[in-house]
Inverse folding.
């Protein structure tokens, strides 16, 4: 962003105090990341109030700040350029909306219960080969992160790939009001946040807000295998592309094969193009179809797309695979978890040629009334994926373990339960160490909701055996 204080004043409908020609080069809601030419916007959170850090922001070099009018403005802060607004969060969003309207940029919105980030990474990697492209960084996919992402865009941007998250109705609708996407992708409809929305049908309603927001001439990309998205009326003038492994898909997955821990391949129909993906997992191949469809729509040569996908890399804690000394494979997929994503990760684990498959499983959060049944279902199906050892962590650990027990089976799953991740470290190290000392090959999958913090276990395990 490179805009004047007067532009900000008009965008946020506030009352300005200071030189209207002052130039602002970036926006921050964190006083610790302030630099010269920055506009500081104090956000009010559950456990903090950004207004408490305005002086710190100005001392760090901020040019101006916003101030929420229901807060008393201290006299020592009034001397700095500032704009008084009704609500600083709403002002942040409106500033992003106004700035986005000044740009000639194609915005692609991506949502889904899981796979959003992986799909976003693939789409951005492919489009960056031909366009000046920016994409959501980290987890900046909500009502605060998305506006900040938009405000970080350079004026010469051509394509933006935005991840859109939600945990309730009308949230994606608001993100779309700000970002104004022309292409909308729904990766899938799963169970994430079902405890907050109540049903998969409501989750589908929330995700559909992205498609409902598309303008005439826009494009929706949908999974052909999801019945909850079928039969919904598209906005007037919006076209649709279906992807998946069904006959009706315009971009169809066929002959999927997991090559090893770091690669898979499939045939793209009807193009009859062999694709090698630098990622394991059928779900990642499904995600790749979205990137292929968008690239083809934007007239990027599919042979170039194939070459890019052969070396694509994802963000950390998303199917992050490390091989240690040829006998240990560590899969850190601990960024988040819901039943659909858990089974997708277990499928990757099942296809690895190893002697022992160890699952370090943390609670799946925000499942509400479904929590017990969903955790039981995971436990009941572990044997189907060849899991030999289970280390379960969290409130529902004993439920998962109890469900995994099979009295009539000749092979039993060795299991342990812990209340917190750090309590399991020594036991995990010893389990893996014992197998390695017996010349066995071992794969360890870390899967759980972000709040369980399994990534610390994965990092410690790698440090122990590296």
């Amino acid at each position: 962003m490179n805009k004047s204080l007067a532009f900000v004043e008009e965008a946020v409908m506030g009352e300005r105090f200071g030189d209207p020609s002052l130039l602002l080069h970036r926006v921050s809601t964190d006083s610790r990341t302030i630099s010269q030419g920055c506009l500081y916007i104090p956000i009010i959170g559950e456990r903090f109030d950004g207004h408490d850090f305005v002086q710190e922001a100005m001392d760090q070099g901020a040019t101006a700040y916003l101030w929420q009018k229901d807060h008393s403005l201290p006299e020592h802060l009034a001397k700095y350029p500032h704009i008084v607004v009704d609500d600083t969060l709403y002002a942040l969003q409106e500033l992003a909306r106004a700035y986005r309207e000044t740009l000639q940029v194609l915005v692609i919105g991506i949502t889904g219960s899981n796979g959003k980030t992986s799909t976003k990474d693939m789409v951005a990697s492919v489009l960056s080969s031909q366009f000046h492209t920016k994409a959501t960084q980290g987890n900046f996919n909500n009502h605060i992160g998305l506006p900040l992402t938009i405000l970080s865009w350079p004026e010469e941007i051509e394509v933006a790939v935005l991840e859109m998250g939600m945990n309730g109705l009308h949230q994606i609708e608001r993100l779309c009001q700000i970002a104004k996407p022309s292409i909308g992708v729904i990766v899938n409809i799963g169970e994430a946040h079902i405890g907050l929305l109540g049903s998969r049908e409501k989750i589908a309603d929330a995700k559909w807000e992205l498609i409902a927001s598309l303008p005439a001439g826009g494009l929706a990309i949908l999974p052909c295998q999801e019945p909850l998205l079928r039969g919904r009326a598209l906005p007037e003038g919006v076209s649709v592309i279906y992807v998946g492994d069904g006959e009706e898909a315009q971009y169809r997955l066929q002959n999927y094969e997991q090559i090893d821990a770091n690669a898979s391949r499939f045939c793209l129909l009807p193009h009859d193009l062999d694709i090698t993906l630098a990622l394991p997992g059928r779900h990642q191949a499904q995600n790749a179809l979205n990137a292929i469809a968008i690239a083809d729509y934007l007239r990027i040569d599919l042979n170039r797309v194939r070459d890019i996908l052969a070396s694509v890399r994802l963000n950390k804690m998303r199917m992050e695979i490390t091989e240690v000394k040829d006998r240990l494979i560590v899969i850190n997929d601990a960024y988040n978890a819901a039943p659909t994503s858990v089974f997708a990760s277990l499928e990757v684990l099942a296809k690895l040629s190893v002697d022992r498959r160890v699952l370090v499983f943390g609670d799946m959060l925000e499942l509400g009334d479904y929590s017990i049944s969903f955790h039981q279902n995971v436990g009941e199906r572990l044997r189907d994926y060849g899991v030999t050892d289970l280390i379960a962590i969290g409130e529902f650990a004993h439920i998962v373990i109890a469900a995994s027990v099979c009295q009539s089976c000749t092979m039993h799953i060795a299991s342990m339960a812990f209340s917190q991740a750090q309590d399991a470290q020594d036991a995990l190290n010893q389990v893996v160490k014992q197998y390695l000392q017996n010349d066995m090959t071992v794969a360890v999958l870390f899967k759980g909701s972000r709040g369980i913090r399994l990534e610390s276990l994965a990092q410690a395990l790698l440090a122990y055996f590296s």
